[in-house]
């Protein structure tokens, strides 16, 4: 691969991506600094060789970038011949109901969305690593933003993490038309307070728009969401305890 020592982004990101328990990470660095090699190594390290189903999912904005990333996976994975790769891209047509045995899937938003929902080739509950490559391009590209969000919501709603006591919504979920996505909101806050345990969900509201979304969510569920006075430390401690 031509690596003599880790680049700055690799040196910073790899300890977090390889940590136990796994951690979420947002990384930004210039082209050619080794970001792809870093997240590819993280995916390869998380694969359970005894399991023959998709475990790692990488979303790329273009067909060409998906193929390039796939080449890196194949090159770095030469020492792990039992790890297989599948491409969820245009032209790769599979029969409905067909089972995918490859542990790593890389693809573009539209095809990946079909594989997760319509065709059910990918079971979101079994995904260990989700990579959103070139996230800024995804958000800026017409159509990709909605599909990427629908894939982060479909995967999220399938995650069942034990002992979650607090859920923090930095952004309230909305659909492609900008209306409150009440079902996704319920899935999110439902990660906490399970099986009779007490849980806390905090929503960040920073504009009239987000306040309007919050009010409409309240109306939908006919449930008042308490306002938290961030200047009242005693109140914050009372709620969190």
- Uncertain stretches of 5 or more adjacent residues: none
Give the averaged pLDDT, no decimals: 85
**What is the H/E order?**
HHEHEEHEHHEHEHH
Alpha carbon gyration radius: 20 Å
Distance between the termini: 50 Å
Major pleated sheet: 4 strands, parallel
How would you sum up the global shape?
globular
Kindly name the structural category.
alpha/beta
Number of helices: 9
Quick gist of this model?
The protein is an alpha/beta fold and about 240 residues long. Helices cover about 40% and strands about 10% of the residues.
Task: Describe the protein in words.
The protein has 241 residues and is α/β, with parallel strands linked by helices. It folds into 2 domains: 34-157, Rossmann fold, CATH 3.40.50.300; 166-240, 3-Layer(aba) Sandwich (Rossmann fold). Helix content is 39%, strand content 10%. It has 9 helices and 6 strands, in the order ααβαββαβααβαβαα. It has a 4-stranded parallel β-sheet. Strands 5-6 form a two-stranded parallel sheet. Helix 7 links the parallel strand 5 (166-169) and strand 6. Helix 1 (8-17) packs parallel to helix 2 and helix 2 (35-46) crosses helix 3. The longest helix is centred in the first third of the chain and has 14 residues, at 63-76. The protein starts with 7 loop residues before the first helix and ends with a helix. This is RNA helicase. Residues 61-236 form the Helicase C-terminal domain. Residues 16-157 form the Helicase ATP-binding domain. GO terms for molecular function: ATP binding; hydrolase activity; nucleic acid binding; RNA helicase activity. InterPro entries: DEAD/DEAH_box_helicase_dom, Helicase_ATP-bd, Helicase_C-like, P-loop_NTPase.
């Amino acid at each position: 691969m031509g690596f003599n020592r880790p680049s700055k982004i690799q040196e910073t990101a790899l300890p977090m991506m390889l940590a136990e328990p796994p951690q979420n990470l947002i990384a930004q660095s210039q082209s050619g600094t080794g970001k792809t090699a870093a997240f590819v190594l993280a995916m390869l390290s998380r694969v359970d060789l005894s399991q023959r189903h998709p475990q790692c999912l990488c979303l790329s904005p273009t067909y060409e970038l998906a193929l390039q990333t796939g080449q890196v996976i194949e090159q770095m994975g030469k020492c792990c011949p039992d790890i297989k790769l599948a491409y969820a891209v245009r032209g790769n047509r599979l029969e409905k109901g067909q089972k995918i045995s490859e542990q790593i899937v890389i693809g573009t938003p539209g095809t990946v969305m079909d594989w997760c929902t319509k065709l059910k080739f990918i079971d979101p509950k079994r995904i260990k690593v989700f990579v959103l490559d070139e996230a800024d391009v995804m958000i800026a590209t017409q159509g990709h933003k909605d599909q990427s969000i629908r894939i982060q919501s479909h995967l999220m709603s399938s995650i069942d993490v034990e002992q979650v006591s607090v859920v923090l919504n930095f952004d309230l979920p909305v659909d492609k038309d900008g209306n409150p996505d009440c079902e996704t909101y319920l899935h999110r806050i439902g990660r906490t307070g399970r099986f009779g345990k007490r849980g806390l969900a905090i929503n960040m509201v920073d504009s009239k728009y987000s306040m309007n979304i919050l009010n409409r969510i309240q109306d939908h569920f006919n449930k008042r969401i308490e306002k938290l006075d961030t200047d009242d430390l005693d109140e914050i401690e009372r709620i969190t305890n």
